[in-house]
């Protein structure tokens, strides 16, 4: 949603999720993707192993989760930097 104050575009209004929460969600999603990818690589290297299809599916889900969490983080970032009266995401993360 866009807020107009005094006839000026003020930026996007986001939910109450904090920068730190969004950043931690993104980091957790990255960690999950790396974990699943390592497991998949191990199965691929062991050519006689079964079950790689489930890991391929899990990796695809983890990858999509990374994209979604990064998009949410960047949406929050873009909304905040559009409004000069709000705290910048860099200083908000550094203060936490």
Protein described:
With 96 residues, this protein is mainly alpha-helical. The protein has one domain. The protein has a two-stranded antiparallel ribbon with strand order 1-2. A hairpin with a 2-residue loop joins β1 and β2. α1 runs antiparallel to α2. The longest helix has 31 residues. The two termini are 26 Å apart. The N terminus is likely disordered.
Number of strands: 2
Unreliable segments of 5+ consecutive residues: 1-14
Question: Structural class of the secondary elements?
Answer: mainly alpha
Shape: elongated
Report the helical percentage.
Answer: 55-70%
In terms of DSSP E residues, the strand content is 5-15%
Oligomer: single chain
Order of helices and strands: EEHHH
Tally of structural domains: 1
User: How is the largest sheet built, in terms of strand order?
Assistant: 1-2
Summarize the main sheet.
2 strands, antiparallel
Count of alpha/pi helices:
3
Rg, Cα atoms, Å: 19 Å
Distance between the termini: 26 Å
Chain-wise SSE layout:
Elements: E1 2-5, E2 8-12, H1 19-45, H2 52-82, H3 89-95
Overview in brief:
The protein has helices at about 20-45, 50-80, 90-95, and strands at about 1-5, 10. With about 100 residues, it is mostly helical.
Distinctive features:
96 residues; mainly alpha; 3 helices; 68% helix
